[in-house]
Records
---
Amino acid sequence: MTIDPDDHTVEALREALDTVEDLETARAILEAEQTGKDRKTANEAIRKRIDALEEDDSETVAAEDDDSAGESGDDEDESESEDEAEADDGLDHPTRDKKHVRALNDGTYRDMWVFCETQQGELLDVSKEMLGKARELMDQYAEDYGDEEDVVAFLVGDDCTDLAEECIAYGADVAIYHDDDRLERFLATPYTRISAHMARGQGTVESTDWREYDEPRYTLFPATNNGRDLSALVQAELDSGLASDCSDLYIEETEISNPVKTGEPGVKKMFDRVLHMKRPDFSGFEYSTILCLDNPDRDFHPQGASVIPGTFDVPEPDPEREGLVVEHDMELEDEWFAAEVTEYDTLEAGVDLTGHEVVVCLGRGIADDPTLGMELGLDLVDAFEDAALGITRGIVTSSYQFDGHVERYAKEERQIGETGQVVAPPLYIAAGVSGAVQHKVGIDESDTIISINTDPEATIRDFSDYFIEGDLFEVLPKLTDAVTSGEIPIEAMADGGED
Amino acid sequence: MTQTKPVGGLEGEYEHYEAIVVGCGPGGAAAAARLAAHDIETLVLERGTEAGSKNVSGGLIYAEESAPYTIEDLFPNFRAAAAERPVTDYQIHNIAGNKVKTVDLTDLHEHDTEWCDAVLRRHMDSWLESRVHELTSETGGGVLTDVRVNGLLRENGQIVGVTCDELDPITADFIVAADGVNSELARDAGLMDWAAPEEWFQGVKAVVEMDPQEINDRFGLEPDEGIAHLFSGDLFEDVRGGGFLYTNEDTLSIGTVFHLDSLVAEQAEPHELLDALLTHPLMSQWIGDDYHELEYGAKLVPDSKKVAHREPYRDRLVLVGDAGGQMQAQGPIIKGMNHAVTAGALAADAYMLTRGNADPEAPGRRYTTMLEQSGTMAKLRPRRYELTSPVGEHGLVTRVTEGVLDSPVGSLAIGNPLAKRLLPKAYNSPFLVGMLPDTQTGYTTLPAIIAEQHGRTVHWENEVEPPSLEERIGDLTYNTDVGNPHIRVLDNSEAASGAAVYACPVSAEDFGGGCYRSETVTTNGSEETLVSLDTQPCVECGTCAIVADTEWEHPRGGKGVEFRQG
């Protein structure tokens, strides 16, 4: 039953509207009115009816749980309030039945634990960065609270003894590690089990007698691929929360009025020694500070975060620093190794043009015969003891057809300039390079710049120490001969070419 | 919010806002401001690192007396805070060689004009952005910069939201595409395409530094006055288009605007055309050997007469401003930003009026009606143009008119004393100007003959040395997305993409430092000319998307060129 509002006076429409029980119908009437007579009073009447119907409607939809106060860690609380709303959504909730068997109440917590990820037998930079930050935080902590608590590095791998020592040098007081041949590469299950086992202080007396607490107060993980994986698993295993991908950390007290945390409404409670974990939202457009706070009847410790690599500075190592290195002891079950790494690859590191005595760079001046130009450039490189070949962006993005044997030199990995590598060798030779500003910034710090160009007006002349006006196809072979025979010093050659 | 949200579906899965506005230029800002005024939760997504960093315009914003909204209505204090000088004087110069005939166009300029200010887009749009952020924050939204919306989110074939490079998809009840002339949303929705070059203009502009006092002296202005000069005639050989010079607070905006098809046909280099204007003797009274260019920029301009979309909506998406082809360019009048403002505000109002309506297209239909009823569409696509153009632009007619003008009789007609009196009148009639067909006659032949017949000869020395293209590119700021070029050439043969080498404003024949370069390549003994592309110097104007065979997208949020002036 639809109503055509055009057939009604506003008065009659009001009565007719009372019979409309369906929101869609009411909206259709509104549009009919708007496209028809568009009477103000009629629009109002219809809108009123729509509002009334909407209100009815919304009563049947459960209120949204708007818990965006920037607090996490109270997973339990969230799942409780969602239970009602999602009671009949027909989805599986595997976490619903989870019992917090290991969750503690009024446990003792101490120290800041840092998971130090390794790769190919070396500590990742982010591991060192976190150790430096942890040191700084715990030194401040000692000053603020008068309690000396430790920075504990924990490592898992196949040969971590030396790395554990290194962690001490980077600021750890204790470094605990677990070695096993099968742990050379990251595997979620054993890494998680070992980390949780360490954190709870389980294991032999010798490996645990340095500590007297239930679990760490704080834990830090790197927000790397593996670190993200591990951080979520370990914090779940320890029945606490996690603030992922953090970009700042500090410890201070905070006053909270949320009844879930205080135990009773209307009361404010002070939490001290709270790790404030700042993380970017919306890809860094906004920041949230995440707190992980105990409930009155259930603890949320350790307060855990994963840290974006590069956030903090790598500290200077102090090889004299003293600390305790502990080998962790635990039986590893075979079934944890059901997942097996069958294949892996190391990504090409690319070409590093820095650190050479001489860099020879080719530009679009080789256009007439790109392959020959490249060969001539390589000949000159070979003539020097320690030289490398670079190219301009103009070559990388060109459609030049290079013969197979020199094709690999025309790749982006050899590009010099703003969007490529920045070089500063004692001697830089640019052949057929015009000298666009984007190129200039990549070579500006070179000691001596020699350029070869057919165009005496080329920009590169402005920042060259020596400019050879000439065709690189003729000049490069002469230069190579001179360098090989050692008969003419380069500078003389350059001077000569300028005539 | 009393709005109930549908349970389930994509709208439950993703972040949801009642309204999303893509782009924070004048159109997007107007839409967002009106939406916020209606208390609607509005998220504004801007791909620049700050609004205005991706924008270039010739530089005049009008407030029309007949328009339902002006930018000052929506953003009080706009003129004082965000605009440059008002245009208080308006002249057109018809040029033939050294001969120049100047006609005062102030009457035409003032027709229906409440005010008109010169603007620089970085300054203007960033000011708008901060106002929009304030307004939208109050209703639960805000402006996010460095976010590039790359397409539409659909559910069961219906548009329900947007997808981005940087963020997860976001759903909305109402989506305003104000993402500019190269709108990715308008294309995704199938409403606009990269069609023929004849539907577009290309503008290039130099922003030139000049002391405010010097501007006053050289242009004969008081501090609160400004002037607009237009240039037409044989200055640009046979390329159809013209030039402009506007005075800002402490800079000048000097540029040229050409029909893209004409640029392609004449194989013209846009930067050389700009240089032709900069170095013309006439200019020496205003600019000299102390010429210092701050920024070189370019943009495409849709020709609203041909492409302004009559029904700029699909599902819950509406197009606003350049994205919907709403750029009025008729003869010497160029009006774009004011129409974008009107359209943006009307789109927001249309949504408010149809709020609660179950049909997702209700706001779009209402917006279309409002564009018609407010007279905006009639300005963008005048009926009289659609009546005359089929005849006027027909090749034969052009040839005949040209023939007449070149013949002694035709020239005599324009050259007689009567014509001298009528000429300013004809130029100053908005009706006549609107009827001028877009042929060489209006742009080159007619002004050149006018200058020949009526002009005085200019003998000044012009000492301006414009920077080279290499220097211009070097002066621009880029945040290059290394290893992630936003344009790919699909066919690098000269036939398919060779036009980009000269039509691209940052490329040129025999210049290796630009975007497009033609290269002679020997493959298995046979020589062929190929086109190669480096997107690093790109100013994101979109020219190559039309004249070459490319796959064209904008760079990711915050990447690519960053205009400081705009």
Note: The radius of gyration of chain B is 23 Å.
---
Amino acid sequence: MKTCLIVDDSSVIRKVARRILEGLEFQIQEAEDGEQALDMCRRQLPEAILLDWNMPKMDGYEFLRSLRRLPGGDSPKVVFCTTENDVAHIARALHAGANEYIMKPFDKEIVEAKFQEVGLI
Amino acid sequence: MIAQDFDYLRRYLKERSGLVLSADKQYLAESRLLPVARKYHLADLGLLTAQLRAAPNGPLGGDVIAAMMTNESFFFRDKLPFDYFKVRLLPALVAARSREKRVRIWCAAASTGQEPYSLAMILHELGPALAGWRVELLATDIANDVLEKARSGIYSQFEVQRGLPIQQLVRHFNQTGDVWQIASDIRGMVTFKVFNLLNDFAALGVFDIVFCRNVLIYFDQPTKSGVLNRLGRVVAPDGYLVLGAAETVVGLTENFSPMPDHRGVYVPKAARVMAPPLAPEQPRPLPIPRVIAGGER
């Protein structure tokens, strides 16, 4: 079973994403912000990360840049999932090493399609 | 809706569009046709059916057919047919057409345009080797309203997230508020046209590749056979027919046979020598297409 780390400061979004991803047979871990997520990744890297942009302490963009500098940090597939839906943010995310990008609001079909796109399903 | 009106409607849809509406789908007809009745200021579906009987060739008929069609579509739907198109079918045709430098592609059930635009994006990205080629991409559908949306190239945030990789969204679309419009150079590669698959295809000319996906499933067996037999006359002898994942030619026509190891791809039955496949990681560079609109061979 593949592991997915859901990083979002909204417990509602984490709950919705967890339900969708467990339905796709992922083992789920959760983090409330980028700092907590980075600590978890230092201990063990997941196969997938579903990542919000705006979070307290460390935002998604800074987390991604830090993650990619960790040993083995280029291996997790990172899918942004955010309300930052403009081209500039998308381009920044891709430049920082995001593999895919989900614009909120989202549904199960979109998450499934994006995870398929990056070879996680 | 009374039974007689529903029976008339089923016959009308079958004769005019090929759509087979089973007897247990009255709820579907009612839910989809009530908005049409409102549009024509008709109080109920009895009056709608009466007007349809009085003027079966009028605009109401077109709206009734359009409302009953299922137009779900998304970019790069099922992925595999587009991979085949990119690494196998198109390179084989480019090799075979190196003298005439012309390729004709038909999306026979284009709906809201995601399929032809997916092909257009592939053609656009394949790059410089198609310089001087004429690549025609004809996209047809029976319903004008879905083609209007297709022509606009405007899609919601939900629509652009189903099947479309984010890099291609950024590369080929312009964002306006909450909607995304496909770039004019991609839009300009596709010619949209209203066309009924029950009609004769001869006037459309001969095609090298026909995508006829996820439409035969709505037809009965004789209608499927009719469409496939007519396709047999417009697909080039060394061309390809691409059907949906739930569709087949088996038992329906003698004109096509499945292409080995390429699910959903069919070739005309006449003996042919297949071009060798290209390795996916080493696609043959293709020239930039000089795309022209419509036209006939």
Note: Helices of chain A lie at 11-23, 34-43, 60-69, 87-96, 108-117.
